[in-house]
Amino acid sequence: MEIEREIGRVFTDSVRELSRKIVDASSEILTINNEALERDLASRLQTLQNEPKSNSDLFADESLSPENELGLNLFLDVVNFCYQNPYTQKSYEYINKEGKSKSRSTGLKAAMAESGINWGNTKEVADLTPEKWAEIIQLDKNKEFYLGTERGKRIAGFAFTLAAHGFKNITGFLTYVEYDTENLLPTLNGSGYFTDEFAKRSQLSVNMMDGVLKRRFSKEFKGMETLTVMADYRLPQLMYNFGTIELAENLRAKLMKQEIIETRSPEELALRAATITVGEKLSKLMGMSEGQVDSLLWTLAGDLGRNGKLTIPHMLVPTDKY
């Protein structure tokens, strides 16, 4: 990895510009309904914002050392994609030390947290073998885990790259990029381990590490206001269920039938691009950062999804990007 310094604000602005161009070129696939955006979605988010908030972070784990937790949040997002197998439609499940089942992202995070590995030590993570990874995530022939083996290779590869550049731990790496998103985001994307035209996983890693920095290091990243919303599979689902994204009939039919949508297909790119563009519009309308909008959108999507209120299913895409 060649560590290069670019302007992070230009980087995320390029994501916004790309998204607008894709949406403008995708009128036969979907359109953005600005009236529904303001009347329904923004109104619902405003109500959610005014509700009493829990101060608990679902991904916080203070049983780990601060450096370990910081590294865990970085390496988790190297592989933060497809917890649901797009072909079988089954989700990853982990049985923790207490014998309790945890699924999807919380399951993977618990598996890594209970592994005994210090994720803040790049050399230790770089030594992660396929056998050790399979043991950590309980990977066997009965375990549903899309690209399960590939995940461990990515984590070890990124850790090796960091260690080879002299970064013994994660704080050393963050010191190099000056705890600044304008340096960190292009560096993560330039590593080859976070490649995505919409920069979902790299932005999520910054967001999650920022939470750890605030809680345990009394620090925070500069430039967090530069982040876009994070385009995955859940946020577009929320938006088209609210009518903010209006779907062409053939795309709606594919989603209702839970047909596979190919990665980098016009449909996938349009859905993710529209998510970025809607997030930008909501940010301006509500007078808050796109990162804050993303948090509200994700909370609402999770609540409604768990309660069966999102009647049009989320897209199923075989991808390594989210």
In short:
It contains 14 helices and 4 strands.
Question: Would you mind describing this structure in some detail?
Answer:
By secondary structure, the chain is mainly α. It has 14 helices and four strands. The protein folds into two domains: 15-51 and 226-306, no CATH class; 66-219. It has helices spanning 8-24, 34-50, 66-76, 104-113, 122-126, 130-136, 148-164, 170-176, 181-190, 200-217, 234-241, 249-257, 266-286, 290-306; strands spanning 30-32, 93-95, 101-103, 245-247. A hairpin with a 5-residue loop joins strand 2 (93-95) and strand 3 (101-103). It is globular and about 50 Å long.
Report low-confidence residues grouped into runs of 5 or more: 1-8
Biggest sheet strand order reads: 1-4
Summing up helix and strand content along with how strands pair, one would put the structural category as mainly alpha
Domains, number = 2
Radius of gyration: 19 Å
* Mean of all residue-level pLDDT scores: 91
The ordered H/E elements are: HEHHEEHHHHHHHHEHHH
Helix run count = 14
How far is it from the N-terminal to the C-terminal residue, by CA? 22 Å
Shape: globular
List keywords for this structure.
single chain, 322 residues, mainly alpha, 2 domains, two-stranded antiparallel sheet, 14 helices, 4 strands, 54% helix
